[in-house]
Cellulose biosynthesis protein BcsQ (Streptacidiphilus jiangxiensis), 283 residues
Amino acid sequence: MALIAVAGCPGAPGATTAALALAMSWPLVEGRHVIMAECDPDGGSVVAGALRGGTPGPQGLQNLPVAARTGRLNEAFWRQLLDLSDGAKQRLVLPGLTNPGQSPGMQSVWPQLADLMAGIDVTAQHDVIADLGRRGGTDSAASLVLRADLVLAVVRTTLRGVHHAEHRVRALAEDLDARGVGRDALRLLLIPAGPYTAAEISERLSVPVAAELPFDPKAAEVLSDGTDIGERRFKRSDLMRHAANAAETVHSLVLQRREQLAPRPVHQAPDRAAIPGGAHAAR
Ligand SMILES: Nc1ncnc2c1ncn2[C@@H]1O[C@H](COP(=O)(O)OP(=O)(O)OP(=O)(O)O)[C@@H](O)[C@H]1O
Ligand SMILES: [Mg+2]
């Protein structure tokens, strides 16, 4: 159905945590699947964080440049995915770069990867939630923003949070206006951790709010750092309960936008010859 880009900004507002929480709560309607893709040029943190270093092998984005050069990006992409859903392969993660030094090698890969992820919809029925990190989605990786159905900027509702978000949000909006489908694809995902209301922040940044995730450090650390608070407590946490609502809201928003942006059937005047007696009647 969709490519959803999650943009962070300086100050670690919680983009990776939010992208993971959304992927773990994503509504898997009609047998769909979801992939959380760590497309952060500064490197991924899911393997060392949520997965506690436990992966079956060296899967990750760093393996894609070689595959892309030899025309095997598509098959290599599927081999990099790790299962977050106990063997059901419904919720998958594409681990990010293992260090920022690998980022230059991704320059020509980002646009191809964006095409692949935006097209997965048709070929494999997967939705993709791409974590762009604090500065990703620019330069050659801009295609991740421009091909996305929705771009969510994660913002903490503190003065520092808004201060850092301002530049990032403005740049994303301008890029979407100049080269994409317009700034209407941009929404805020707020983490209320400060004194400002959603309305105040939305007005300040001139971007509507899509959803909120609560400030819940204990549950967030399970996703960002792999801490163990017990499965039951994690699933019932504020963060994960609200993530389910947020995922539903974002999912519906994407469907709504797709409907609005879908090309309308062109209304054609009926072909007179096709109407019984039509062509003759005109004579
Ligand atoms: N909703 C939340 N409530 C409380 N703490 C959170 C929340 N989301 C994230 N955090 C905490 O904030 C810190 C940064 O989170 P995270 O790594 O997800 O941010 P990020 O925006 O991806 O950062 P970076 O730019 O470094 O990639 C972590 O310690 C995490 O536990
Ligand atoms: Mg991150």
